[in-house]
Inverse folding.
């Protein structure tokens, strides 16, 4: 079984790397599909699920889920439920066979499947440039706001990851391979990564 | 120009990885050759050069260099001279063309050549196993002694690296690719790494 997990810093291109790697290997890549499934299964709004599914956010304001207004303690329970559903879904994907899973602490959740765990990172400068490139029409974050957002997202991911397992998110020791995308075009890294992954699984 | 630098934790197999990678790419790998050249050039003992060439050791006892006994302050000057010679030799290798250079802060020294900088690491358990395997006849370190030695060597390397440039040795941010050798046979990683390096240099 070849399962690859991609953990990534916000803006580092981990999602793109995961998608391209999966495509090149001819296996599915699960990323936003997970959000959609959770939303469907629990009857929640996709935006809400996206926001809480791999992070512990402390929201200072009441949140809306579907058509309901919820107070913070309730959000928290719903969040835990969302994450439990997510873990079930991720295990279900792994059961189905070879795949790439982006984020969502899949490296921890699928530990028993002996995945190849990759961490993708970049310099702040490179991440800012990537975020600018991908910004939706009408998005007008300043650099400072964007950096704050990056930090907040990564902090949430780290917290979720580290609560599941006492292993540090983003520390190289927690991964098999760490890839700095700062000076590279992600597309160009794929053939090497495919060969690397093939060899890695072959000796298992 | 394709220059690859391999920084590595003691016992992680970085030297083997460097040698095999260079061989597969058909380019020279410089490792112990550097020591031999420095020793020759400065008339020093190879063992001494090996000990001080990529580390700042604080020796509590007087050292012998060639046939001379030296006190600590003198050793220190000789060490600085050794390292200066080393930097010159490393730049000379880079001038000659494509190569792999193992250790010796080559990532910093050759910065202007835009090398692909790789860091090789492993779990303590894996490093211990590797050290045991490679131990010379008659070497009888306990695990505790071996771990102390690993830490001491890595600390020296970090100190030398960080004094040359304010960038942290062993932090993933200082490298383009970080490879965990714990669960792998190094030989099996080489084809993927060659493809990775080829693509990395191609887009330059």
């Amino acid at each position: 079984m070849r399962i690859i997990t991609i953990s990534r810093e916000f803006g580092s291109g981990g999602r793109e790397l995961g998608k391209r790697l999966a495509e090149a290997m001819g296996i599915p890549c699960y990323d936003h599909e997970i959000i959609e499934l959770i939303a469907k299964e629990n009857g929640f709004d996709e935006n809400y699920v996206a926001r809480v599914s791999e992070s512990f956010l402390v929201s200072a304001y009441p949140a809306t889920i579907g058509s309901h207004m919820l107070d913070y303690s309730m959000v928290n329970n719903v969040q835990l439920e969302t994450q439990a559903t997510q873990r079930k879904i991720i295990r279900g994907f792994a059961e189905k066979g070879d795949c790439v899973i982006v984020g969502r602490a899949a490296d921890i959740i699928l530990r028993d499947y002996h995945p190849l765990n990759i961490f993708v990172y970049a310099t702040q400068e490179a991440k800012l440039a990537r975020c600018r490139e991908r910004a939706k029409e009408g998005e007008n974050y300043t650099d400072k706001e964007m950096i704050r957002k990056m930090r907040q997202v990564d902090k949430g991911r780290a917290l979720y990851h580290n609560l599941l397992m006492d292993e540090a998110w983003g520390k190289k020791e927690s991964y098999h391979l760490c890839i700095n995308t700062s000076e590279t075009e992600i597309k160009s890294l794929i053939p090497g990564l495919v060969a690397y992954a093939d060899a890695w699984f072959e000796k298992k």
User: Anything to note?
Assistant: The helical segments of chain B are 14-25, 32-42, 46-52, 72-96, 106-109, 124-134, 143-164, 186-202.
